[in-house]
Amino acid sequence: MKRKLMPAFFVGPHLILFLVFVLIPTVYGIYASFTQWNLNSDPVWTGLDNYRTILFDSGSTFHRQFWNGLKNTLLFVAMSVPLLIVIPLMVAVALEHKKVKMKGTIQAIIYVPGLISISAAALIWSLIFNKQLGVSSNVFGSDAVWSTTQPYAWMIIIILTIWGGVGGNMIIYRASINGVSKDLYEAGDIDGAGPIRKFFSITLPSIRFPLIYTFVMTTAGAFNVFGQPLMLTDGGPRESTTVLMMYIRQLAFGHGDSIAGMASAMAVLLGVVILVISALQYYVMNRNAN
Amino acid sequence: MSKNMTISKYISYLFLISICAAWAIPVIFGLTTSFRSQTEVINSGFRLLPLEWIMDNYRAILDNTSTAPIVRWLGNSLYIAILHTFFVVVVISLTGYGYSRMKFRGRDTMFFVLLGISFFPPVVNLIPSYKIIDALGWVNTSWAMIVPGLAGMGNIFLVRQFMLGIPHELDESARVDGAGDFRIYFSIILPLMKPVLIVCALFSFVGSWNDFLWPVIVYTDVDKMPITAGLLLLQDIYGNYRMIGQLMGSAMLAIIPTLLLFFFAQKYFIQSINLNSGIKG
């Protein structure tokens, strides 16, 4: 009897937490997307109305917000993810160079920004990009106010993202490159392969799995972008950097009446986009690798 | 050394040093600006070091207890992050033991079903999670940030993976000697789990300290919010950059705890990758 109850003691608490904070809210989030809901009273079932409005009703604000938010989110993903893969890879390869010293210090300097919160990081960088005080005007001689002028508004968002995001992928690549057999490189030397040839023929194929993993995870993370545009540009200029998460938050928790049903439908659509793209990436990269 | 090797060494150095400079300068500039007077900030343009070092900004930060209670926000963040981390360690060690060492029907199926569900993008449960926190009466309390994160599967996955790699001999022999699950968990498994628990604890602390979206949603009470949400507010209060030194000082205070943690536990942060043997490939 007692032995039978023991698993409940060890696994049970987490199971309850999981039900309350993951499973129920997820199911409820999907349900709410088919309703009209203001967070306070009970949701009223409206079937596919929210989705119809968001996807097809070109006269509706929600329609415009969703497509603008999705476009900006995709733009962010397309700009940030390649850099968040390529730069850490370049750093990891450069750090593998036998003659490079102070590897630990260099690695620490690049890794540390990843431990800084988005709000603190944004404050620090907004000083750098401040027209009057920072680097952008004084060093680069730019006349524009960067946070309210395109393409600078996107540039500062991407720069902040790269600054904070390179370190995590870098240590994954370093660990994987370290794990590649030295024999392969020696064989490459004997065949007279140069460093570039060795990178493409030995290093890249050997770290295939970590590459797929970081690519999928970095992309899924980038779709949730929220803090950088909120802090740096507040979505401007003219909503050109307002991402989907900002609209979702605004609709559900902003000033005035909550439109949580509509926001839930947008959240579900964003979730579906993330799932489809992750699956696609995994499928394509795995197939090409084999 | 071949000529090729020398050239590639210089290219590597050039690349690494420029990145390090670009990575470090913003923090250094923010730090030194926090010791500058507003007049100097406005008039001197971009200079890495202050003409005159002053402490006034930090004094003003400590004195402000009404519109922008920064010390309070830091205290809230510390309280939240410490309690969250403690509960994470308790929950993941118990649960990790359950899913790796106990025998019950459907154990592995259950684990993988939960893991599968947890891959669902969290944006979908954001709005109802707020509703649940509201129903529990936790809006504007620290529990709103301490508890929900305990439901995650990521750390439990790591603990379970780690435990699968450790032979069962020790706990089996204790079991033969008549020790119960609780004894085995506490005196044998918990010490064995230490490396993975330390890594999970560090990342939980950093994650909790830096969380931004969730606190921006669940806190409206200025006195109750953590520093990340506070800094968003500060940007409005000190808007138009009237008090840049204080703004930078606050940002500096907000990054100290995680940087200290990194300084003392660097090897755990860097080696964390080895726990996730699946990624390393």
UniProtKB/TrEMBL annotation, chain A:
Start and end residues of each ABC transmembrane type-1 domain: 70-281
Membrane topology: Multi-pass membrane protein
This protein's UniProt keywords: Cell membrane, Membrane, Transmembrane, Transmembrane helix, Transport
Pfam entry (one): BPD_transp_1
SUPFAM superfamilies associated with the record: MetI-like
Main location: membrane
Cellular localization per UniProt: Cell membrane
Transmembrane annotation, as ranges: 7-31, 74-96, 108-128, 152-172, 207-226, 259-284
GO cellular component terms listed in the entry, alphabetical order: plasma membrane
InterPro entries in the cross-refs: ABC_transporter_permease, MetI-like, MetI-like_sf
Keyword check for Ribosomal protein: no
Source domain of life: Bacteria
Gene Ontology biological process terms, A to Z: transmembrane transport
Entry's family note: Belongs to the binding-protein-dependent transport system permease family.
Name the UniProt record assigns to this protein: Sugar ABC transporter permease
Organism: Paenibacillus sambharensis
Automatic annotation (TrEMBL), chain B:
GO biological process, one term: transmembrane transport
Ranges where the ABC transmembrane type-1 domain occurs: 74-265
Segments traversing the membrane: 12-31, 78-99, 111-130, 142-163, 184-206, 243-265
Record key words, sorted: Cell membrane, Membrane, Transmembrane, Transmembrane helix, Transport
Domain of life: Bacteria
The keyword Transmembrane helix appears for this protein: yes
A cellular-component GO term for this protein: plasma membrane
Membrane topology summary: Multi-pass membrane protein
Localization terms from the record: Cell membrane
Cited Pfam families: BPD_transp_1 (PF00528)
Family: Belongs to the binding-protein-dependent transport system permease family.
PANTHER family hit by this protein: ABC TRANSPORTER PERMEASE PROTEIN MG189-RELATED, ABC TRANSPORTER PERMEASE PROTEIN MG189-RELATED-RELATED
Protein name: Carbohydrate ABC transporter permease
The organism of origin for this protein: Paenibacillus sambharensis
